[in-house]
Amino acid sequence: MVAIAAQPYAYPLPAASQIALVIIDMQRDFLEAAGFGESLGNDVSQLRAIVPTLQTLLAAFRERQLTVIHTRECHRADLADCPPAKRVRGNPRLRIGDRGPMGRILITGEPGNAIIPELAPLPEEWVLEKPGKGAFCRTDFETQLQQRQLTHLLLTGVTTEVCVQTTMREANDRGYECLLIEDATASYFPEFKQATLEMVRAQGGIVGWTATTADVLAAIARYPTATGVS
Ligand code: C5J
Q1: How many helices (H) and strands (E) does the chain have?
Q2: What is the pTM of this model?
Q3: Alpha-carbon torsion (17, 57, 39, 190), positive or negative
Q4: 230: pLDDT confidence band, cut at 50, 70 and 90?
């Protein structure tokens, strides 16, 4: 069996056509000053540490022509897809839809809503816009996964305990085999990241698996590259 060395036990690798790297919300709004993350009072510099790791994963997936899915948390300009509860909760400096230095906060098409340049999607890559924390909430994500016959999702991105964990739980409930890449996800709260890793792999993998980038790269090296040479 070809597998990724993972916790709580080895994660069996499917056919190359069935696996996807899911990069959640690596947007300027969460990683740069004056975006949504900072408006909530967070130290956004903490999230940058995973960028080189994600670049390595992205290159390995692209080299093998494996599916890459980028997500963006965003809303329509008229906020029709933003529940009032989401907009009014708390006491942020700038609310969703307010104008900040990077354009309107968390609004699709605004400069701050873009994925950071280091991880910019290729024109042919799948970019899922999602109004919720989870990628399945009010999107066609499940339909698209089914149409493409994807069954195994390797999750990365930010923030671990919010959009990443919500998406992983939604996917797990729908029957997808999910693995969270430990050093390719980050939180504004390191202790929340650690707790998430432990809770997803507890009880025999109740939400899924976790593994390091090194172990993922070692395993996917079994898939042929576009040129046939690894
Ligand atoms: C948050 C996210 N934290 N992408 N969004 O509001 O995790």
Answers
A1: 8, 10
A2: 0.97
A3: positive
A4: low
Residue count of the chain, please give it: 230
Q: Hey, which of 38, 72, 73, 160 would you mutate to test ligand 1's pocket, going by the most ligand atoms within 8 Å of its Cβ? A: 73
Ligand 1 neighbourhood includes 163 CB (under 6 angstroms): yes
Strand 19-24 and strand 152-158: the pairing is: parallel
* Neighbouring residues of 200: CB distance < 8 A, sequence distance ≥ 6: 165, 168, 178, 180, 206, 207, 208, 209, 210
Distances (CA, A) of 40 to 28, 95, 179, 205, 217: 14, 9, 28, 32, 35
Residue type, 84: P
Q: Which amino acid is at 102?
A: M
* Active-site entry in 29, 74, 130, 193: 130
pLDDT tens digits, 148-179: 999 999 999 999 999 999 999 999 999 999 99
Residue 74: CB within 6 Å of ligand 1? no
Specify the 3-state DSSP secondary structure of 211. Answer: strand
